[in-house]
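Appendix C: a fully annotated inverse folding record. The material below is reproduced so that readers can follow the format used throughout the book. The structure is listed first as tokens, followed by the designed sequence.
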């Protein structure tokens, strides 16, 4: 915007003002005031243009210094590793990959172990439940048929006592008769 108001433009404006001032004698005070303002504006524009030139040069110098600093900084950060160090780093990378694969396999196998434990527990509890239900059904069926399950020892003792009573009744028929009457009376109660 300030480039549009250069010295040629100011002269042109002054010539128009001079022409106007000749035509209008009454507005000569205003024209002089405008002339003074135009002169001030011209000086201000020259000062701003000088500051712009100085600032532009400063910015260019600053940009060059930054580029030089970045080049030096990149040269300072270069690390020259020996061949052994490079090989050690490469072997570490290979071991690191195997380590990651090993950890992945370990985690996967642990998850499989947990899943198998869960399903094994579910299967075991279901089989125990089905076994106990099956036993109960068999016992109910035996009981419904009028039979029962006894200990073998108790059954053998009962069988032995029955045989003993039968032998006693054969040897003592009079007492056996009294016993049978007692038994019938006892069972009738």
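Designed amino acids, in order:
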């Amino acid at each position: 915007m300030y480039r549009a108001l250069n010295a040629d433009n100011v002269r042109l404006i002054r010539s128009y003002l001079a022409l106007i001032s000749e035509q209008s004698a009454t507005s000569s005070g205003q024209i002089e005031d405008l002339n003074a303002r135009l002169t001030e504006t011209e000086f201000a524009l020259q000062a701003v243009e000088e500051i712009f030139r100085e600032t532009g040069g400063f910015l260019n110098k600053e940009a060059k210094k930054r580029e030089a600093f970045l080049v030096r900084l990149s040269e300072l950060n270069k690390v020259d590793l020996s061949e052994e160090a490079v090989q050690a780093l490469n072997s570490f990378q290979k071991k690191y990959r195997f380590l990651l694969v090993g950890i992945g396999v370990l985690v996967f196998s642990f998850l499989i172990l947990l899943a198998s434990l869960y399903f094994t527990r579910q299967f075991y509890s279901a089989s125990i439940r089905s076994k106990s239900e099956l036993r109960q059904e068999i016992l109910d069926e035996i009981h419904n048929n009028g039979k029962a399950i006894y200990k073998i020892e108790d059954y053998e003792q009962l069988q032995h006592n029955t045989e003993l009573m039968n032998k006693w009744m054969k040897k003592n028929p009079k007492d056996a008769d009294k016993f049978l009457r007692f038994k019938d009376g006892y069972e009738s109660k």
